[in-house]
Amino acid sequence: MIDYTSAGIDFGLIAPEIALLVTAFVILLISSIRRLNAFPIYIAFIGLVVTLALSIQQWSNQESGFFGMISCDNFGIAFKILFSATSLLVLLLGYRYMIARGIDRPEYSALLLISTMGMMVMANTTDLVVMFLGLEIMSVPLYVMAGFARRSLRSNEAAIKYFMMGAFASAFLLMGIAFVYGASGTTELRRIVADISFISSRHGAYIYAGAALILVGFGFKVAAVPFHSWVPDVYEGAPTPVTAFFSVAPKAAGFAVMLRIFLFGFADLEILSDVFWVLSVLTMSVGNILALRQGNVKRLLAYSSIAHAGYIMVALAVGGEEAVSAAIFYLVAYTIFNLGGFAVVTLLETRSGCRSNFSELPGLAATHPYLSAILALFMLALGGFPPTVGFLGKFYLFAAAIKSGYIWLAVIGVMNSFLSVYYYLRVVKASYFETSDEPFTPVSYTPAIVAVLIITAVGTLGLGFFPQQLLEFSRSAIFAFL
Amino acid sequence: MVPVSAYLIVAIVLFGIGTVGVLISRNMIVMFMCIELMLNAANLALIAFSRSLEVMDGHAFVFLVLTVAAAEAAVGLAIVLAIYRNRETINIDRFSILKW
After folding, report:
1. Given CB 3.0 to 4.6 Å as the disulfide criterion, which of A68, A289, A355, B70 pairs with A4?
2. What ipTM was reported for this prediction?
């Protein structure tokens, strides 16, 4: 057996994480000086740009370090790039909203950065202990961010629900890790893979119990049905930029870890494929069906994010290189257009008193043609229309499923996509074809949010026409675990 | 010598009590305590396995878990406090502005 643990300490492997942490601490220090309260957002911006550059620079550097605790492979680095870019966009899109709601405190940026760092740790390890630690570094700041509007009862409620569900899920995950450790004597996935047949013949019950408990833990985190009940409430109650972050980054982090654990670590447990088949079908169907009757755009996007988790879970059921790269492609694409959708919602909600109900949408198209066109573009991408990148993402996922013989899974997925078109088009219909007596209050654009809208819109359309780059990126990002 | 299965049974029972407690309790502090109970059940299982396997990793892991649990407790209690200031109650049933 190869000795992975001999790899020593190399700080270059965790340079992006260090950059984030240092920036976060600098922000916390500076924010204690009242005069400098306006600076943190710029410092966070610079820190995130540096992190993004450092992550990109690590590309195709396959190394393991810190005695096997950190594995920097393309899979992990791809997620590092995704997380830092997401965090950057969320920082930009939330700035004016936070000021408008009177919650533009510097700690917000620091929490965002620390949470991003936790996600990076999660994606860049093959050790269950470090995964757990990364998960907690990610989650604890998220609980605070959900309740960041601390005078708002809705935000309070979102925070406590998210906290209770998150902590509950962590306990399951931890118990699962304990069982896996008991069965195998190690928490390092590469060692578990090496002698899984021996482990499962001798301690079969432990390893199955452990895998099931870990699945429950991450099921909560990525909002798989039947562990989804917290999602709509938390998404609706949390400040909108925070919701935008919730809907993409922790989900991507959860899937990064799930792909590693279940397609690599426990790849030999054959029952898992069937379990994911059922979970995937349940998640996409329940998400889509419940989304049909929502009257609030944020809640609708919450259910839609559940459905999208279901689509990505197809990759977990199918397995294999092609499915993993399709899942990465889909996660990147979903991040782009979902953030775009939330950027529009944030822009609308920056006006006082707006809760982004459907009844507030009429008049948008007449007064803001560009904004409503962009909103329609994101809705079509979420529904999977060509020529947006949403169509290609679904196409690659279901194509991978069909190639591996999961015909029914692909059929159910496609049927679900057709179902989802109905509620996405309801948003478009409300903004274009419905009228309301109340005049539409104009929105005020800021350079930051316009930049986010342009980046996401160009990404949604551009990658739809020219997917080659992203396709290569996701193909070279499949895990090569040294 | 107490066999490892005895510790495991205790851990599973504690975990079960914690799970049921979270699901049926209406008081946020009690729910919170039940989550701590679940975490400590996992700790007990880790230590029992660690001893029986004679690998020390599990012991180190328990310290990490304790630290994480403390951080979570700090955030959780802060959230509960913020809620109490706004609403003067910590009964989870009263939280229904957003449909649960």
Report:
1. A68
2. 0.95
